[in-house]
């Protein structure tokens, strides 16, 4: 069963750091066969926080999604956002 990273940004304090993060995160995600389904774009908030950016990444299965998130490659990218963005990141299993 496939799995997904669902990441909703609450606040982006530094757009340049977000770009730097994205450049490092993309190869890490692709290494684990991750496929970006949503990366920003037009959106409408119906309930909850107004998110300036949403990202959804599809993985072949739940374990691969976990392995990618925990990998040194992704964590090196993830660290770039420290202090520069507030986001909610979940890994969920689905169809």
Explain this structure.
The chain has a single domain, classed as Alpha-Beta Plaits (2-Layer Sandwich). The radius of gyration is 13 Å and the shape is globular. Helix 1 runs antiparallel to helix 3. The longest helix is centred in the N-terminal third of the chain and has 17 residues. Strands 2-3-1-4 form a four-stranded antiparallel beta sheet, with helices on one face. The chain is built from three helices and four strands. The model has no long low-confidence stretch (mean pLDDT 96). Helix content is 37%, strand content 33%. The protein is an alpha+beta fold.
Topology summary:
Elements (H helix, E strand, L loop, with lengths): L2 E10 L2 H17 L3 E5 L13 E7 L2 H9 L1 H9 L4 E9 L2
Antiparallel strand pairs: 1-3, 1-4, 2-3
| Structural class by sheet pairing and helices | alpha+beta
Neighbour order of strands in the largest sheet: 2-3-1-4
Helical content stands at 25-40%
Q: Please state roughly what percent of the residues sit in beta strands, choosing from under 5%, 5-15%, 15-25%, 25-35%, 35-45% or over 45%.
A: 25-35%
What is the mean pLDDT? 96
DSSP strand count: 4
Number of domains: 1
The major beta sheet can be summarized as: 4 strands, antiparallel
**CATH-assigned fold name:** Alpha-Beta Plaits
